[in-house]
Amino acid sequence: AWKHSSNEPSREVNGSRLISKLAAGLKPRYHFAGMGIHYERDPYRNHRVLLEAAQHVTRFIGLASVDNSDKEKWLYAFSIVPMRKMSRMELTAQPPNTSEFPYMEIIADLILEERASAEERNTSNGGQQYFFDMSEEVEDHVDRGGRRRKKYDDEGPSARQARVQQPCWFCLSNVDVEKYLVVSVGSHCYAAMPKGPLTDGHL
Description:
The chain is α+β, with helices and mostly antiparallel strands. It has helices at about 15-25, 90, 105-125, 135-140, 155-160, and strands spanning about 30-35, 40, 60-65, 180-185, 190. The protein is globular. It starts with 16 loop residues before the first helix and ends in an 11-residue tail after the last strand.
């Protein structure tokens, strides 16, 4: 759950891929987990910016064990307004520290395993075909050879810790987006001018 967040758990925790898949499908506003440690990651978005309608963010909160020796937080108090009592603007508001969806690679891995299992059954069943319905974003994580792209595979813990996520100045869902630098918005991409000193090729 920590991927793309600006902070990480204080120690490594083994998560559940099936729970990740469930969270991806349900898109809860709050996701509580008994991780044995306290960890509250940045809220993450449940839609693809510019490609899908804005949706509410998910806030993931891991709680430590009751009366733990490290005195980590094991209780979380909050008040939540029901969706039906919120306007769409309130519901889909994206906090400045909102991160990208963290489970995409996990979902891609699960689909690849299901595909491999189906192909094995296909061989034993005399050529019956199986089809998988993947979103474009999941498909982007799976190459044509049926293997997940190794974007993060070679990054060890030190590399992940060294990467600090800064606020996204060009993300249109960010309340602090610098729209004057956005040149054009299209169906699949948009052009933005670089931040920095003016150059000869600057528009």
